[in-house]
Every structure is written in C-alpha cells, then in structure tokens.
Design brief:
This protein is an alpha+beta fold. It is built from five helices and six strands, in the order H-H-E-H-H-E-E-E-E-E-H. The chain is 31% helix and 31% strand. The chain has a six-stranded antiparallel β-sheet with strand order 1-6-5-4-3-2. Helix 3 crosses helix 5. The longest helix is centred in the C-terminal third of the chain and has 30 residues.
Length: 164
C-alpha cells in the first residue's frame, strides 16, 4: 500500500468482484488540490496514455499534457490502459476496468475520486491480480513491486496535471 489510508484500504471496490480470492490487492492514493470533476476528467485520459514512465509504459511517447476532447465519454468495453477494458463507471467518481491475461490471469482495477472539501480530492487506485495458483502468486509479487513504482508516478502525474 502506498499513500492509502486504512479506510481506503478496507473499502469495497468493484474490481474485487472481478478477481475473486485468492488475489493480491494493491491500493495506492494521493491528495489532489483540485475538484473531483477535474481529477476525474484527467483520470479519463488513461484511455489514451498511461501517465507513468512514458519511456517504459508508452513506448517513449509523452503522455498528453492537455485534455483530449471526448475522453470523458465513457462506455463499457472501451480500452483503458492498453490491456484493460472498462467494465463499469460512475461519472465524476469511479472507473473499473478488467483484463484477462494468460500470464497474469484475471486482473481488475478501480480508480476512485473522493471529494475531500471544496477544491480538494483524493485519487485512490486499487489493482487486484489473481494469485490462485503458485505461479500466479509469484508473478503477483513482481507485479506488486512494478505497480508500486508505476502507479505512484501515474497518480502523482495525474494529480499535478489536475492541479495545474
């Protein structure tokens, strides 16, 4: 866990419904000095780019630093972060996406924007990865370490862009 408060770790996330246990569940969070609807609009940008380490995650292409028109028009089945598909969303609050990879097995993520006070939000992300057999448990440990580095950068980048 990185940046997440105990209540955020313990909360129910729709991604958990897509990856039944045993699963590795990773929760990351960051404070954002911006209104929830602004943070959510930047979250929708994950349809076009990962916003983490572009050299690694985006084939060297820079993630856009301006909002792409229409990215906030969400629909189930849309591609999200390359290997995921949107399975559900709550406008201005939450996006859940799922993937089923032969190596990683079932995985799902939920990004949630929480209203803290006027002009302030929390951006919380939870990634669930299957750990239903020995091989997937081992892979999930590697994913957890990679996710810690990549998701931390992603959330900080999205927060910085929303605050600008």
């Amino acid at each position: 866990m990185w940046g997440a408060r105990p209540d955020e770790v313990d909360a129910h996330y729709p991604c958990g419904d897509h990856v039944p246990g045993p699963a590795r569940r990773m929760v990351r969070a960051v404070d954002v000095a911006a209104a929830p609807e602004t943070v959510f609009r930047w979250l929708c940008q994950l349809r076009v780019a990962p916003y983490s380490y572009d050299l690694v995650d985006n084939l060297g292409r820079r993630s856009p630093r301006t909002l792409t028109p229409g990215m906030d028009r969400l629909a189930t089945g849309q591609r999200f972060l390359h290997m995921f598909r949107i399975s559900g969303y709550v406008p201005d609050r939450e996006i859940t996406a799922v993937a089923d990879n032969r190596i990683f097995g079932p995985s799902a993520m939920t990004y949630r924007v929480l209203d803290v006070e006027p002009g302030r939000s929390r951006l919380v992300a939870r990634l669930d990865v299957s750990a239903d057999n020995r091989a997937r448990r081992a892979v999930s440990v590697l994913i957890a370490w990679g996710d810690l580095v990549m998701m931390r950068r992603q959330l900080r980048t999205l927060a910085r862009l929303a605050e600008a």
